[in-house]
Each structure stands twice: as C-alpha cells, then as structure tokens.
Design a protein that fits this description.
This protein has 364 residues and is an alpha/beta fold. The chain has a domain of 162 residues: 3-Layer(aba) Sandwich (D-Maltodextrin-Binding Protein, domain 2), CATH 3.40.190.170. It has twelve helices and eleven strands. It has a six-stranded mixed sheet with strand order 7-6-8-5-9-11, covered by helices on one side. A five-stranded mixed sheet has the order 2-1-3-10-4, sandwiched between helices. Helix 2 runs antiparallel to helix 10 and helix 4 crosses helix 12. The N and C termini lie far apart (86 Å).
C-alpha cells in the first residue's frame, strides 16, 4: 500500500473514532427530570403564565434533556408548602415569592421586596452585580436551597379597600391580606394582617373575611376581579416597590447537575426574569384603564400623613428584622447601603428625567 494513502486513511479513521468517542457520552446522557412546584394558580395571567413559560423554556433550551413537570398551587402541594417540598428533595424546584418564608428566616423578605426598598431594576442590579446573589446563597444554603431570580412584578399597587384611607386612623382595625415585611408595617398601624395564597383572596374579600388586599398591579389584579368587592384602588404602595420572584432549587440536586445543565436552567431563569417585568410594564396602563372605564374602580393615592406613618413603622420593622440574627443584620446593612448608592444615582438621572418628561408632556 502507498505509504501516504495509508497514513491519510488511518488519520481519517482515527479522527472518526475520536469523534465517535466524543459523541458517545452525549448520546448516552440520560434525561433529567425536574419537578417544579409553584405558589401561583395555573394559567393565571402574569405570575402563573410566567412560571409555566419558564418550565417550558428549560425543556426547550435543553432539547428535552431536562424534562420539566410543572405543578401549579394545589396540584401537588399547597402554595405555601413549596419551600419544604423542595428543601426535602421531594421536588427539585419551586417558583414563588421568598417573602412568604419570613417565618423561617426574617431576612427572606429582602429577596422579594421590602417596604420603601428597591424597584425592580435596582433589585436586579443588586442581585446580579451588587453582591445580593451571594447573600441570597448564604441564607438559602442554610435550608438546603439554591436560588435565582426568575421574574418580577415591577412596583406594586398599594391595594384594594372597601373604604377610603384618608389618614392613618382609617387603617385601625382593618383586616387585610398583605404578606412579608409590608404586612409587619401594616400591623404596627393597627391592621389585622393575614397571608393568603392568590387562589384564596377573592373568596375572602367577597365574603367579608377581609376588608382589603394587595396583590400585584392592574394587569394581574384585573383577572382577580377584586373590583366586585372593593372599589377603592390605591395604585402607589410602600410595601412592594419591586416584587422579585424566586426559583428555589434543591441544593443537592443542583450540585449533581453538569455545568451544561446548570447553565441551561440559569439562562432560562435570567430570560424569564426580564420577560415578566417587561410584560407587566407593557400591560399595567392598559388594564388600569379597563378597571376604571369598564368597572368603575376609583383610583386613590395615600396622603402624605399616611406615607409618613408607613415610613415610621418601616424603620421599626427594619430594626426588628436586624435583631433576628447576625445574618439578618448583615443582609440589611448590605441592602440599605446598596439602596442608597443605586437609588441615589437613579434619582438624579432616570427619576428626574421621568418627572420632567411627564411634566412637559402632561403625562399622568
């Protein structure tokens, strides 16, 4: 045989064998099952559809290698049982709002939203580039979990009331659905607060079991039909300026994944984290108009006296949260410092621009 032909054919064969060797592990890779439980109702516009979109996206990006099974609130476990479901390893992931878990650790509130805290762009900046993710990992790791931001609501409405709130005295004795540290603020002002999952709010408002509720904003609230029981809608609120949502993963399961599988999940989370906020911003104005024009909702704003009372109560809540533990104090220190740096600059740039733009163009 011609020596050059032999070497050429041997090289091709070797290359082919090498390619086959490289391809074999990929072909032999087994499919990963990823069970996701959620705190949101199925097919619910905004929150629910966002969670479902994330689950579908993970399977699509992985070309079916990560097979997700999504369960809405109540389909596998109750809305407020998802944390324990995933921490125990019974399911691999949950999607929800981490301020639901302040009973487990007071600092979880900072990883959804806190009164007078960060807006969605500010919170995302803190999480991704300001050290927030590392603190979230430290806190969640104590419970066997790994977290990523997977959505956000933007600045939420102050809530639905069956009477006008003209002064702090009007809050006394009110029964209101409001979770997290915002609920603690309301409690200090004489409100009897309850934390209900989304699927139970309407029935409690209609029956009179509660007098008021906050939920999200016009786009999400429209479909809850709260206007059938409460006509006063306070659009500006102190309790949820951002509303960041969490993908909670069982830490042992997460660490068992390949770097490729982890990258797929993280990429899908980042994608949906942006998409949900953008959808809310795009839809809120339209749905506020529908609430007003089609259902006679009366939009209201809290007075400065009410805002000041909220502020005084929030400062007390921050101190109580810090007293919970050294980690809670560490997280509050970091959050408050970052808020002043990030929010301080935005006040001089974007917010000043928005105020002047709206004045000049007659917007709002």
């Amino acid at each position: 045989m011609d020596r050059r032909k032999f070497l050429k054919s041997a090289g091709v064969a070797t290359a082919g064998a090498g390619a086959a060797t490289l391809a074999t592990p990929a072909l032999a890779q087994s499919v990963r099952d990823m069970v996701i439980v959620s705190t949101w109702p199925r097919d619910f516009p905004g929150l629910g559809l966002s969670a479902q979109r994330f689950a579908e996206r993970v399977t699509a990006l992985s070309d079916g290698r990560i097979k997700t099974q999504y369960f809405a609130a109540g389909e596998r476990v109750g809305a407020f049982d998802v944390f324990d479901e995933v921490a125990s390893g019974n399911s691999q992931a949950y999607i929800g709002a981490d301020y639901y878990w302040t009973g487990k650790h007071a600092a979880f509130g900072y990883f959804t939203t806190v009164p007078f805290g960060m807006t969605a762009p500010e919170w995302n900046a803190w999480i991704r580039f300001g050290g927030g993710q590392e603190l979230w990992d430290e806190l969640s790791g104590e419970f066997g979990l790994k977290k990523f931001a997977v959505g956000g609501t933007g600045a939420q409405a102050g809530g639905w009331f069956n009477k006008e709130i003209n002064s702090p005295d009007d809050l006394q004795g009110l029964k209101m659905r409001i979770p997290g540290l915002g609920g603690n603020v309301m409690s200090k002002l004489g409100v009897s607060t309850v934390s209900l999952p989304g699927g139970q709010i309407y029935e409690n408002l209609v029956s009179g079991a509660i007098d008021a509720t906050e939920w999200v904003g016009p786009f999400n609230d429209y479909f809850m039909k709260f206007y059938e029981a409460a006509k006063y809608y306070y659009v500006g609120g102190m309790h949820e300026p951002g509303g960041g949502l969490a993908l909670g993963l069982n830490k042992d399961w997460w660490e068992s994944l390949s770097s490729w599988e982890q990258a797929i999940i993280e990429a899908a989370a980042h994608e949906e984290n942006s998409a949900q906020v953008e959808e809310a911003i795009a839809k809120n104005g339209e749905y506020l108009n529908r609430l007003v024009n089609d259902h006679g909702v009366q939009v209201r704003a809290y007075s400065d006296d009410v805002w000041d009372a909220f502020g005084d109560a929030a400062l007390e809540v921050f101190e109580e949260t810090r007293a919970h533990s050294a980690l809670a104090a560490k997280i509050d220190d970091h959050f408050q410092k970052s808020l002043r740096e990030i929010g301080g600059f935005r006040a001089k740039s974007e917010i000043e621009f928005s105020l002047q733009r709206n004045r000049v163009l007659g917007i709002g």
